[in-house]
Amino acid sequence: MLKYKRIVSNLLEENIYILSDENKDSIIIDPGLGFQHIKDYLEENDLKPIAILATHAHIDHIASAEECQRKYSIPIYMCKEDSLLIENYEKLAGFWKVEARKPKITNWIDKNETEIKINNFEFRCFFNPGHSPGCMSFEIDNTIFCGDLIFKGSIGRTDLPASSPLDMEKSLESFVNSFDIDSILCTGHGDETSLGQELKTNPFLMKYAR
Ligand SMILES: [Zn+2]
Ligand SMILES: [Zn+2]
Predict the structure, then answer these.
(1) Which ligand is nearest to the CA of 13?
(2) What is the DSSP letter of 84?
(3) What's the 189 CA to ligand 2 centre distance in angstroms?
């Protein structure tokens, strides 16, 4: 049985998720600013981090990725289409006045990849660009970690330098029709919701309900 914990980070109230299984293996999803929170949770629950998974390369989602990687010697998975954002990481860190070193992405995920397996964790990958060129969602056990694609009542911004509003439209339409409506959405900011709930109430998504 998998469980996850949501931790609100110290930058832009981004959500860090720590997913763990009965063997105490754990995956850190979107390690935003606040390494200490991650470390405390792992230690309190006797969890062993085995990998970092990033929904996209924006700094609020990976500000402590390098520190997690350095302290735990674990790989980082991210969609290859966000490699340009990683190349410009230092510039963005400076903009947000964040002292965070650039993470080394060890496992680039191809945009056409549909599955990744990390020990006993088997994720379905879903490429959903728009908010950034390499946004990817990860589904496991009917729970989808969707980053900044969808929020409760809203969607991710598309006015950022590498955003594409057109790609976002396509991604949203395809996303909402690709998963079970009972799926839980673990969003990059704000409270969790479900796909069905958003299709009923989210003004940006209602038009896509089939
Ligand atoms: Zn973002
Ligand atoms: Zn974000």
Answers:
(1) 2
(2) H
(3) 6
Tell me the pLDDT tens digit for each residue of 81-105: 999 999 999 888 887 788 888 999 9
pLDDT at position 94 is 80
Q: Which residues of the chain have pLDDT under 50?
A: none
Laid out side by side, the sheet with 115-118 consists of: 115-118, 121-127, 136-140, 143-147, 184-187, 193-194
- To the question of pTM greater than 0.90 for the whole model, the response is yes
AA identity, residue 185: L
7 alpha carbon, distance to own chain's centre: 13
- Rounded to the nearest whole angstrom, what is the distance from the C-alpha of residue 23 to the centroid of ligand 2? 30
What fold, for 3-208?
Metallo-beta-lactamase; Chain A (3.60.15)
Rounded to the nearest whole angstrom, what is the distance from the C-alpha of residue 58 to the centroid of ligand 2?
Answer: 7
Question: What pLDDT score was predicted for residue 100?
Answer: 80
pLDDT of residue 130: 98
DSSP 141-188: TTEEEEETSEETTEE----STT--HHHHHHHHHHHHTTS-TTPEEEES
Question: What stretches of 14-149 show up as alpha helix (H) in DSSP?
Answer: 35-44, 59-62, 65-72, 83-87, 89-95
Confirm if 135 and 157 have CB atoms less than 8 A apart.
no
